[in-house]
């Protein structure tokens, strides 16, 4: 019990620290799980878009040969028409288009401008504004061969199309055919990356935007396409163009982080580069995916977890304090019961013995210890005539009077029945003890009021004093007990 009293504060603090440590570790793990969840979902979003593009490319390549053959045949028909009537301005393209399924017809002049087309939105489009593409068109105009591109995105509508080019024999015009692949193969609409991008933005609140960048061969010119309703926009911030260019030239993901006062946005630029048969990059059919994430939602979730953690800590601390207070109360109560007489509240034999050992251990060499053994005279008479309840009250009053006489460094103990022991410390002579005994006897014999009844009682006190060499407690108690009986017998 003494050992427990000595270390109880340390034990309490240790237990509380362990609980806090476990709670904090749990909170840290939860934060890591939240971060991991958003990282995993970010990878899922990126992979979804990349896979959509790759699946679209794979699906379109299946129909590549069929479309190429169709486009070449239709181009030859148009060349034949040109031989018969080189006055292109007089052509009825709508009538010709009816013979060519889903294809749109474009006539591009030597200035790389669309001068006639079945697709009104592209009429008067000037490709000379795009140096790299106009350079490509020039090589095709000067050539004598049919050329077909892979999947492309219409500059004015964002629709996924495929285009072919056939120069006229006099190299004045370039006949272009275009087809909306989704109109020809409606099943491929499910591979629409724009629709997927919108769905992902709607589904995940931390995804702010998904867009697609187009670029020229050296990535000097960059345009952005967000969906089918918006044309390519080349008026984009300089830092976007720079990062797209770096992503293309290095073929690695680039990122831009913008820190606001309360949250951070991160934009990833992911290059999706396709290759030609000769191993060179097919830049006209390549993209950079721009995905912008905001950690606002993640921070909100972490803040909620932090608030929950603080509330839990407060709750744990409150419950712990109440629990510890209850434990301390019970321990003190148990300790009190283990070291005190249940009736008078005086120290019991065990507490008396521990206090004696403590006094002996720090006693000065010349000081002495006295043991007084006190027994009430005729206490049985009080019990027999007034009842045990009155007898208990008498014992309680006697205990109070004894403690009022002795000093604070002395110890009074009830050892059973009507017997008490008193430990007197720092005794200089036997006269000091005699004076205390006299005071105790005078105090005890004063009348005691017990529920309106006045009773008097005397006591017999035996004495033993330790020698300078020291004496055992049992020896001193036995000597005092014998002395007490001698005093009692002398009264008879």
UniProtKB/TrEMBL annotation:
<dbReference type="InterPro" id="IPR043128">
    <property type="entry name" value="Rev_trsase/Diguanyl_cyclase"/>
</dbReference>
<feature type="domain" description="GGDEF">
    <location>
        <begin position="367"/>
        <end position="492"/>
    </location>
</feature>
<dbReference type="InterPro" id="IPR052163">
    <property type="entry name" value="DGC-Regulatory_Protein"/>
</dbReference>
<protein>
    <submittedName>
        <fullName>GGDEF domain-containing protein</fullName>
    </submittedName>
</protein>
<keyword id="KW-0812">Transmembrane</keyword>
<feature type="transmembrane region" description="Helical">
    <location>
        <begin position="7"/>
        <end position="24"/>
    </location>
</feature>
<dbReference type="Pfam" id="PF00990">
    <property type="entry name" value="GGDEF"/>
</dbReference>
<dbReference type="InterPro" id="IPR000160">
    <property type="entry name" value="GGDEF_dom"/>
</dbReference>
<keyword id="KW-1133">Transmembrane helix</keyword>
<dbReference type="InterPro" id="IPR029787">
    <property type="entry name" value="Nucleotide_cyclase"/>
</dbReference>
<keyword id="KW-0472">Membrane</keyword>
<feature type="transmembrane region" description="Helical">
    <location>
        <begin position="309"/>
        <end position="331"/>
    </location>
</feature>
